[in-house]
Amino acid sequence: MSEAVNGNPDTVAGGRVPGQRARKYDASRRRAAAAQTRAHILDTARELFVTRGYAATTVAEIARRAGVVPDTVYTAVGRKPALFRELIELALSGTDRPVPGARRDYVARMRAEIDARRKLAVYAEAVTAIQGRLAPLFLVLRDAAAADADLRGLWDEITRRRADNMRLLAADLASTGATRTDLTIDEIADIVWTMNSSEYYSMLVTDRGWSEERFAQWLLDAWCRLLLVTPAGP
User: Which residues are CB-contacts of 143 (< 8 A; sequence separation ≥ 6)?
Assistant: First the structure.
């Protein structure tokens, strides 16, 4: 039988209160349930945005398909622009939460490589994985940005971030001494920026039926030929 402490029948030896443990367990269950509901809402929203487009998808329809009320969508994620932004950020990061570009795993792996071709190999694989998640959404964003101010702002922001990140990548690549001397950092960045796009991925993988493995290998081969002084063999 548990021993009361300091005359308090609710406290057992060791200072633990049984009710506290139950409350912590209940709070943990609530957080897990909320996270599960949020993930389901996001999955449902993604499917609708990709199949119907941004303008034709309403929060009410997302809620109905997800089996919740609209207020739950607003509480769990936000308004429709915030919902779409979250989907874009999660597709970019490949995790259950947004991660800034400089802190993604593949960036650290690229920087750890000292060989230019190995850096590009890591990045080609990362781009292929990212675009598998991102491309369907990004094409929706591109089409909707012309008519929606919120999405135009998101489009401009993502475009600017991509360009800035490509300059960092180009500088890291040039630091190996293996890039072509007739290309500036900005030119290297622009070439990679163009070829890592959702449009490129969609044309070759979705429209032309390339496998992701073929696309990644093609990116690596093309970048080595375009950017490096003497492309190394396999």
Answer: 53, 54
Contacts of 18 (CB under 8 A, 6+ apart): 10, 12
Tracing tokens 């597709």 back to the chain, one arrives at: 91
DSSP β-bridge partners for residue 179: 228
CA distances from residue 156 to 69, 77, 134 in whole angstroms, order as listed: 32, 22, 16
For residues 108-126, give the mean pLDDT. 95
Q: What is the pTM of this model?
A: 0.81
Residue 143 pLDDT greater than 90, yes or no: yes
Same-domain status, 64 and 128? no
Question: Which residue type is seen at 89?
Answer: E
Same-domain check for residues 206 and 145: yes
DSSP state, residue 102: G
Output the pLDDT for position 94: 81
Task: Report how many domains make up the chain.
Answer: 2
* Cα–Cα distance for residue pair 95/189, rounded to 1 Å: 26
User: What is the end-to-end Cα distance of the chain in Å, rounded?
Assistant: 70
